[in-house]
Design a protein that fits this description.
The protein has a domain at 144-231: Serine Threonine Protein Phosphatase 5, Tetratricopeptide repeat (Alpha Horseshoe), CATH 1.25.40.10. Helix content is 66%, strand content 1%. The protein is built from 17 helices and two strands. The protein has helices at residues 44-58, 60-71, 76-88, 92-105, 110-122, 126-139, 145-157, 161-174, 179-191, 195-208, 213-225, 229-237, 242-256, 259-272, 277-290, 305-313, 322-332; strands at 23-24, 32-33. A two-stranded antiparallel ribbon has the order 1-2. Helix 3 (76-88) packs antiparallel against helix 4 (92-105), helix 9 (179-191) packs parallel to helix 11 (213-225) and helix 13 runs parallel beside helix 15.
Length: 335
């Protein structure tokens, strides 16, 4: 759905728990050691801090970033980079705390605010991220499109589709030539079942960026949902082969629960390419869903240039749109 590619200190946060052995010594008597107290269990937070410190000590890039923040305490960009570096290494809580400190120290910094929003999202604290971003754009009404785009995405991911729409529209108002913003609004409208309006946005995204596979796939979904299956297939064939296009439409029918129509499309897909892996998987899925055998009824069609070309350019749906949805989630978290 999302393409967010537009738009971290050298603090080692230490939480040391020390186990101390105490020996009481009395004059004229043998010293009797007292049993060493059991070490308190290490919680996940403390363990991540220790692991992060170990990584930081052995990671050349992290070491440089930490040194840079120590040497340039007023450099908000260095703090943002450090937070991002820790997040990329899987230490999301550490990244979040670095971003929190950056926002506290530089409350007017948009870069610090976006870093905080991304890190909150990474630990599934979207409600706090939404509130923080809403407050920021309210205090900074001249914020760039990226801030409103993130606000729309966070609302979308929280299921607040009607609230996400005006944020996406504001982003487009500020940057009308950014194709990914039109794709994001289109997806929001698609989830609100405003299929024709969604198709308009996907077409605009393709006008701005004809090679956008995401917008191409989403346009096909919008057309299929608008009861224009022939147009959906024609749209998909502009970037793939006939087998893939018919398989994509079959995936739409599967999601709608229309298994007879799905089988018809899969027969067509496998008629073009009997080895089409996604179509075969969908045929197996339909067999499980409707209880009928997953049989191949199609007569192999003559190989075409599309089939040969498709191996290098096709983007397949596997199952009922799972692939399309997985690809959308992956571009919204891009930092």
């Amino acid at each position: 759905m999302k393409d967010l590619s537009k738009p971290a200190a050298a603090f080692a946060v230490l939480a040391a728990g020390l186990s101390i052995s105490c020996v009481h010594q009395q004059v004229g008597r043998t010293a009797t050691p007292i049993a060493k107290p059991a070490t308190a269990p290490v919680n996940a937070w403390d363990q991540q801090i220790r692991n992060a410190v170990n990584v930081g000590e052995g990671d050349y890039e992290l070491g440089l970033l930490r040194q840079r923040v120590a040497a340039e305490p007023e450099n908000v960009g260095a703090r943002v980079e450090l937070a991002k570096a820790y997040g990329e290494r899987g230490y999301h809580e550490i990244a979040l705390e670095i971003s929190r400190l950056a926002v506290a120290r530089f409350p007017e910094s948009g870069a610090a605010q976006l870093s905080l929003v991304r890190d909150l999202r990474d630990v599934n604290q979207r409600a706090e991220a939404i509130t923080a971003l809403e407050n920021f754009v309210k205090a900074h009404p001249a914020s760039a499109a990226e801030y409103y785009s993130w606000l729309g995405i966070l609302r979308d991911e929280s299921g607040l589709w009607p609230l996400g729409e005006p944020a996406h529209r504001k982003a487009i108002e500020l940057a009308p030539s950014a194709d990914y913003l039109h794709n994001n609004l289109g997806y929001n409208l698609l989830m609100q079942k405003k299929n024709e309006a969604a198709a308009v946005e996907f077409r605009e995204a393709l006008k701005l960026n004809p090679s956008s596979r995401m917008a191409r796939n989403n346009l096909g979904i919008a057309l299929a949902q608008s009861n224009a299956p022939a147009q959906a297939v024609a749209n998909w064939q502009e970037a793939s082969d006939p087998a893939t296009a018919h398989n994509n439409l079959a995936a739409i029918w599967i999601e709608k629960g229309n298994y007879p129509e799905a089988r018809k499309e899969l027969d067509l897909a496998l008629g073009y390419n009997r080895a089409h892996s996604a179509a075969l998987k969908n045929l197996e899925l339909v067999g499980r869903l409707d209880g009928n055998p997953a049989t191949l009824n199609a007569t192999p069609a003559t190989a075409t240039g599309w089939q040969r070309f498709g191996h290098s350019v096709r983007k397949l749906f596997v199952g009922p749109l799972d692939d399309s949805r997985a690809e959308a989630a992956k571009n919204a978290s891009v930092h």
